[in-house]
Amino acid sequence: MTKAEPIISIRDVRKFFGQLQALRNVSLDVRKGEKVVIIGPSGSGKSTLLRAINRLEEVDAGQIVVDGQNICSPEVDINLMRQELGMVFQSFNLFPHKTVLENLTMAPMKLKNIPREQAEAKAMELLERVGIKEKASVYPRKLSGGQQQRVAIARALAMNPKIMLFDEPTSALDPEMIGEVLDVMKVLARSGMTMVVVTHEMGFAREVADRVIFMDHGEIIETGTPEHFFVNPEHERTKLFLSQIL
Ligand code: ADP
Ligand code: MG
Question: Which residues cross the membrane (predicted)?
Fold first, then answer.
């Protein structure tokens, strides 16, 4: 692992929803090419943190710099910025009235003015990469959950993002489909993509993560390698959480 400059730099971020503090002075650097896995109980602020990185949530204090740009600044072109950040959610969020291929070509054609032919060629390449090329002309409802999530990943990649954010991408899937989605993410990880992944899949964390972050009540409680978490977690709250999910 080279000591590259951080491509994501989060400093003392706080976020309130009314009285509730969802993020408490969260600081985190992610280097280029790094794979960071975020774990923690429901309600600990994982999604809020991911969403703050592409300003789907505005933070109340602190700073978030992505690829050299302060995304909290009113001057930043957030739509342009978001093109660098692919996001994959628990619910696949495909456009139901578009075919798989159209799901992949729409944003590149509309937002980047890529000619149709070129967008389609790239889309087919990505569909092949996620093992679903033969479904290019079908509608999302015809696909299994695992297939839909692989399409969602390909759709995010179609914009050529520098960073991929995953928010519990396998949590809504039937168990037999989790593996195929994780496999696609592992291949992506090997390609050198910078990835921040919220997941409870500890096998994935062990295999892929450079660093695991444990959050609880809006705070980062503990950070370490996957080995650290499996062999020697430090904090009681971490131990309790791991004992519940492993
Ligand atoms: P996690 O992803 O770890 O389950 P979240 O980031 O979704 O946690 O939520 C952190 C806390 O913020 C939770 O208590 C949740 O109820 C609250 N929260 C999240 N989004 C909103 C919202 N839009 N309005 C009010 N409270 C919210
Ligand atoms: Mg969440």
Answer: none
